Amino acid sequence: MADLQLLTRRRALALGAAAVITPTSAWSQSYPTKLIRVFASAAPGGGTETSGRLVSDYLGTYLKSPVVCEAKPGAGGMLGAQLVTRAEPDGYTLLYCAASAITVGPNLVADAPFNTLTDLAPINAIGQSPLAVALSPRLGIRSLPDFLKAASTRELTLGHAGIGTLAHLTIELLAKATGGKIRQVPYKGGGPAVVDVLGGHIDGTVSDMPALYAQFQAGELVPIAITSDKRSEMMADVPAISEALPGFSAPVWYGLYAPAKTSPAIVQQMSDAIKTIAGNDDLKARLTTLGIEYRPFPSPAEFRTFIAGEFNRWGKFIKENNIREG
């Protein structure tokens, strides 16, 4: 009788556990069943939107369900992020952005439209790419030391993808190093800034590699430095800014995010999808031509820890350097 009661109790516990597990598992297995919209928080033509469309296409093929990437520029990437934080947490509205949109911008503006650490569920990183400082060939400046020297004697204009981006902070740092002679010109994305450099309206830009690489190859822009802590294999002759200004490192991390309270099973499923397509040689080759090294994290939890660390790091940097909005 005791054995029968024990068996019954074990069976009840097993059924109870199944009742807890089944809904989440069933939800994950039935996802996705409709169009997934990915908001790329930058203007068309920039690195975020270009790589976002590419990654979305491969995710759609892997998931056997349509994944459409839409550009949502504005506020240094925070507009697209804000839209996602307010979306239904069902896995069908996601954010693709450079990490600076959610780690730099909210630390810089007076009233951030969302809380990075509580309003978003990090899924996984796609990879990283350095920013590049690129100039118009008409300036005749071919190196970072020459640029710093020129900017210490006359005003030069550098465009960037918006207030609150890593490009913005990079230009702030360069301005401090040259006595404030550099004037920054914010745009709604890296693409429009490049257009104005090519059109002769500004002297140069600081932007992500995908927005610049084709112009580098064509000789339409001159790369003088990158923001990673070491030189890139793609352009080994271009120095890192840290060679002239020790200690500075600001690579761009691209990643995918869901609204907070999205099912952990869906977050995990999308993270696994990102890690799986990372093994696609064609995708990696196409991202490489954009200057992006595919580097997903082992898990959403580790990616979340990384984002929290970046949020705190840039918050401290902004405060210590007294950098203000605008």
Describe this structure in words.
The chain has 326 residues and is an alpha/beta fold. It folds into two domains: 34-128 and 252-320, Bordetella uptake gene, domain 1 (D-Maltodextrin-Binding Protein, domain 2); 131-243, 3-Layer(aba) Sandwich (D-Maltodextrin-Binding Protein, domain 2). The chain has 13 helices and eleven strands. It has helices spanning 2-29, 47-63, 78-85, 100-103, 105-108, 116-119, 144-151, 166-177, 190-198, 213-218, 264-277, 281-289, 300-320; strands spanning 36-40, 67-71, 93-98, 120-129, 131-135, 156-160, 182-186, 204-208, 222-226, 252-259, 293-294. A six-stranded mixed beta sheet has the order 2-1-3-10-4-11, sandwiched between helices. Strands 7-6-8-5-9 form a five-stranded mixed beta sheet, with helices on both faces. Strand 6 (156-160), helix 8 (166-177) and strand 7 (182-186) form a beta-alpha-beta unit. Helix 1 packs across helix 11. The longest helix has 28 residues, at 2-29. It is globular. It starts with a helix and ends in a 6-residue tail after the last helix. Mean pLDDT is 87; it is low at 1-27.
Short précis:
The protein is α/β, with parallel strands linked by helices and 326 residues long. The protein has helices spanning 2-29, 47-63, 78-85, 100-103, 105-108, 116-119, 144-151, 166-177, 190-198, 213-218, 264-277, 281-289, 300-320; strands at residues 36-40, 67-71, 93-98, 120-129, 131-135, 156-160, 182-186, 204-208, 222-226, 252-259, 293-294.
